[in-house]
Amino acid sequence: MPRPAPDLDAVFAALADPTRRRILEMLLEDDMAVTDVAEPFEMSLAAISKHLAILAAAGLISQDKRGRVKWCQLDPDAMRHASVWMQSFGQFEAINLDAFERFLTQERLQPPEET
């Protein structure tokens, strides 16, 4: 049975937090035990567990118990769905920020026209 498409609001809300983005980056490497996920952060295990619950609710990770240890693994489906949604905006031409900055600088240096 196919899984339903993830809720984009939940995905983007989960991705809005830098701690959760860092956790996802860590899980790109390999599955990790919750205690290993928590190790590099200066916060409690309970706080990390809340971040993991948000990521799991958004469908970005899955968790399972192996013996006494709870493991986390990246689940790319939600990210893929968000990526497809964002790519639909690729039809717009990218802004050349350097050219735009030069234009703004030029506009600031030119004296205003007298009327």
TrEMBL record:
**SMART domains for this protein:** HTH_ARSR
Q: Which CDD domains match?
A: HTH_ARSR
List each copy of the HTH arsR-type domain by range: 1-96
Determine the domain of life of the protein's source: Bacteria
The signal peptide here is none
Among InterPro entries, the record links this protein to:
ArsR-like_HTH, HTH_ArsR_DNA-bd_dom, WH-like_DNA-bd_sf, WH_DNA-bd_sf
NCBIfam families annotated for this entry?
Answer: HTH_metalloreg (NF033788)
Protein name per the record: ArsR/SmtB family transcription factor
What organism is this sequence from? Litorisediminicola beolgyonensis
Taxonomic lineage from the root: Bacteria, Pseudomonadati, Pseudomonadota, Alphaproteobacteria, Rhodobacterales
